[in-house]
Amino acid sequence: MSLLSLSFTLAFVAFAIALSLRQRLGLEKDLVVASVRATLQLLAVGYVLKFIFSLDTPWFTFLMVAAMVAVAAYNAGRRAKRWQAVFGYVFAAIAVTEALTMAFLLALSILPDRPQYVIPVSGMIVGNAMVIASLFLNRLRSEIAARRPEVLLLLSLGATPRQAIRSILKDCVKASMIPTIDGMKTTGLVQLPGMMTGQIIAGADPVQAVRYQLLILFALLAAAALTSIILGVLVSPTLFNAHQQLRDPVE
Question: 10 Å Cβ neighbour count for 220?
Fold first, then answer.
């Protein structure tokens, strides 16, 4: 795609801004900022990836993946501003998920150990884990606030903190995984996923593209379960103080 062709696509942004003005939505500034940021970020990442691919060394690949995990943890961690050290917990959950998933793919030679494969697939896994973590934390905050009397009652009857919030954690894990599960159910019927579409546009055999896409879908499903469960185990103790009492509601 030439720069001229790409510039024509700015018409989509202009159309969205025009609709915002017409409907008085007040989103014009956000639309412009989002478009500029996306452009600059993608261009920067493109040059960084070109540099890393040319070097083809595992250290730069590791640093790139670590940076993605850190950014993802920061964005997801903002959902729980009042929980101490929540960034560390989110970072640990996403990092462990990425490490286990990628280790499995590389150990069985399902994925070549080259930056061109490791970084894009890691980006999908980390990005999905970030969304799962955000959904989990958001749901956990609302569930703790809404079901506080239930937790306090269970504690008063002798339940341990883990027992008192077990059902809440289960509901949060289920809720955070719904988008991933529903997305898998409609894949191929409602949408053609990005990796499959990209390979087809590049001229790959559609059947081969489907195989790679299934690899990603199955990996994302496992990553979603791992992220939410690990995050629940790490964050749940922070809801209680040293005397096993439920802390103040998280706003």
Answer: 23
- The answer to whether the Cα torsion of 33, 38, 41, 47 is positive or negative is negative
Which residues make Cβ contacts (< 8 Å) with residue 95, sequence separation at least 6? 69, 73
| DSSP three-state, residue 251 | coil
Q: What is the pLDDT of residues 201-238, one digit of tens each?
A: 777 788 888 888 888 899 999 999 999 999 999 988 88
The DSSP code for 110 is S
- Cα(195)–Cα(212) distance, integer angstroms: 8
- pTM of this structure: 0.83
User: DSSP letter at 250?
Assistant: P
- 113 Cβ partners below 8 Å, 6+ apart? 58, 106
